Amino acid sequence: MGQLLDGKLVAASLKEETLQQANELREKGIVPKLTIVRVGAQPSDLAYERGALKRMAACNIDVEVKELDAEITQEDFVKELKAVNEDPATHGILIFRPLPKQLDENAIQYVIAPEKDVDCFSPINVAKMNVGDKTGLTPCTPTAVMEILRHYEINPTGKDCVVIGASNVVGRPVFELLLNEMATVTICHIETKDSSKWARQAEILVVGVGVPRLVKENWVSEGTIVVDVGINVDKEGKMCGDVDFDNIVDKASMITPVPGGVGSVTTSVLAKHVVKACKQQNGL
Ligand SMILES: Nc1nc(=O)c2c([nH]1)NC[C@@H]1CN(c3ccc(C(=O)N[C@@H](CCC(=O)O)C(=O)O)cc3)C=[N+]21
Q1: Per-residue model confidence (pLDDT) at position 112
Q2: CATH of the domain at 155
């Protein structure tokens, strides 16, 4: 059986680091704070919010949820966001996405203050990530993938990596973060003729598509390292990933479970980013 890549372990070790840094800031009289901007009450937003609130509490980071009406206009949303940008007590801002359809994400991405943008919504942070400028803030879930690899001393440098899924929130940033580590990266997407053919060549396979158990046993080779970013609910109401875990676990050399894999690391990365942003804003 392949080794389980245990996200809870990774999250716990990140938490220790972040808690210590948050406490050091508090000793200096600086209180690190995250403000969450939620429009409406989407179940997936609420699921993430619950996890984020718990994690911030564990890291001694303050958090405020700014809950906005589901029908809010573009103009009012921009006004609210600018107020959070300018709030000196707030060091990190997380806006749940996707936003409802009356709001124009392509315009709003330019409004969020880049130095507070802890989940990489601003094109400034996207550009910094894409050129490997470490002063920026990277997206939490893709960074959680990298933190799992780092924790288990899996160095992507020079490795053949295949990313399944080219979304702006998972696949593309994972591609860029792996490339920054000098991996050889192939990205497969909806128009790829045969993703399984590329996946079988992978030393590290990262999957983020949002299709329950898309990746079957014949997509992996003996020894592949499999990282599953999917969080789905199957027809039986059971949480599952994008990888057919039960049929792959024996073939893979290492594999993340769902739940308990990437998804359990994301909020720890969020906390780490709030502390990073807080330090930068205080010249530390
Ligand atoms: N800017 C932005 N970034 C996001 O990352 C983002 C977002 N907007 N909008 C909403 C979606 C949804 N989302 C979830 C994350 C974890 C669970 C979840 O269930 N987590 C489990 C752990 C799952 C596991 O262990 O794999 C938990 O916290 O217990 C659900 C949903 C993030 N999102």
Answers
A1: 99
A2: 3.40.50.720
